Amino acid sequence: xxxxxxxxxxxxxxxxxxxxxxxxxxxxxxxxxxxxxxxxxxxxxxxxxxxxxxxxxxxxxxxxxxxxxxxxxxxxxxxxxxxxxxxxxxxxx
Amino acid sequence: xxxxxxxxxxxxxxxxxxxxxxxxxxxxxxxxxxxxxxxxxxxxxxxxxxxxxxxxxxxxxxxxxxxxxxxxxxxxxxxxxxxxxxxxxxxxxxxxxxxxxxxxxxxxxxxxxxxxxxxxxxxxxxxxxxxxxxxxxxxxxxxxxxxxxxxxxxxxxxxxxxxxxxxxxxxxxxxxxxxxxxxxxxxxxxxxxxxxxxxxxxxxxxxxxxxxxxxxxxxxxxxxxxxxxxxxxxxxxxxxxxxxxxxxxxxxxxxxxxxxxxxxxxxxxxxxxxxxxxxxxxxxxxxxxxxxxxxxxxxxxxxxxxxxxxxxxxxxxxxxxxxxxxxxxxxxxxxxxxxxxxxxxxxxxxxxxxxxxxxxxxxxxxxxxxxxxxxxxxxxxxxxxxxxxxxxxxxxxxxxxxxxxxxxxxxxxxxxxxxxxxxxx
Lengths: 93, 425
Fold this sequence. Notes:
- The structure holds 2 protein chains of 2 kinds.
- Chain A has a 4-stranded antiparallel sheet, covered by helices on one side. Chain A has a two-stranded antiparallel sheet with strand order 3-4.
- Chain A is about 15% helix and about 40% strand.
- By secondary structure, chain A is of the alpha+beta class.
- The model of chain A has no long low-confidence stretch (mean pLDDT about 90).
- In chain B, helix 7 packs across helix 10.
- Chains A and B meet through helix 1 of A and loops of B.
């Protein structure tokens, strides 16, 4: 199965750390632009679509036999970030 | 036994088979079809057929094997009719052929490297997977392994039926979509996951144990279900001392269940319970299992808690309770699972063993513990020790404080009774 691991950091952390082995490293949420298109109108807003205590700092697309294996990969990222959360989400087949 | 059996006997046989075999049938069907809903449906169908067929042909020698084969054939039919998942169909057909005539399965599935292979165990570990919310783990275990219906589980947990149905649907969907494996976890995950399974069974038991009124029959039955699941687990993992420890703990608690409340449904404290009404056989079984577990030389929280329960249950009178022993065991428990609640229990045991003042000194040390902030048993324990130490006025003040915090109505009445005694005496 394919899973995406959303590798997160606390909002206060300046991102330089997550990187090793990630499919994509993301710049901080301050550099984000959120887009919504409605009735021919495109609305832009500065920043991420949701502000939380943590933000997604990187993505990893992985192939794993099952959730246990995906969790083991996520745990490795989490450990590298000193315990930052990693969300594991299966990809539609 | 052949034909001509009366209807009641067959109904009883089916009911007995349901209790004994439901989990096994569902568990096997999930393994061979990979489809939780289909597995439940086919198991249900097999039990319905049993009622009919056993009446006509007699109860088979191995009801479990008969039911599994019937359910599996049904699954085969359904899959054939739907003509979906051709590979799945082949798999079911192959496993059906591999099954020897006596219904004993040859073990062809080698996906587990833990060396334990039983479908019920796979099912239990999957239902209790930590990626599922705890309420879903409990509900799914009751539905698939214990065979409780969704309305029964809803009643037991005091939630609307639709909520419970939704909870079960969601859990099954997550198992499928997130790829939660149907297996006994490999060795490196096994200790942690086993602890998780034990936690679910213990929670189940406590839900039942908390049910006090007679109208609460479904909830009270949870104790029986938890014990049954613990027995299955102990059967399948006989070398795990904590598994035996949990079963011992549940039996030792359950042996006292009948006397925990009086005829009016009011709670009765341990020292006032009528010990002649305790279930001796159950208590002895628990104590025996605990001994076996302790011989394993790997103590754990359930074994220690069972040892504490055994101290209470084997004491001939409340006065004969070995409180020094209990205090020592709480010390051991505190070492294994540091917690302020355990320290509070130890403080009480020390108070009973060495005198109220010794206990009160330990309770005083807990005053600033965040874990106990707002916990009514902190002032209630203090109150009880003061009362025993012959300081009724201070005890009354502590009882008043406990009454500000208590939420359970029965416990409130118990504390009010104590408070009244302190004021009058």
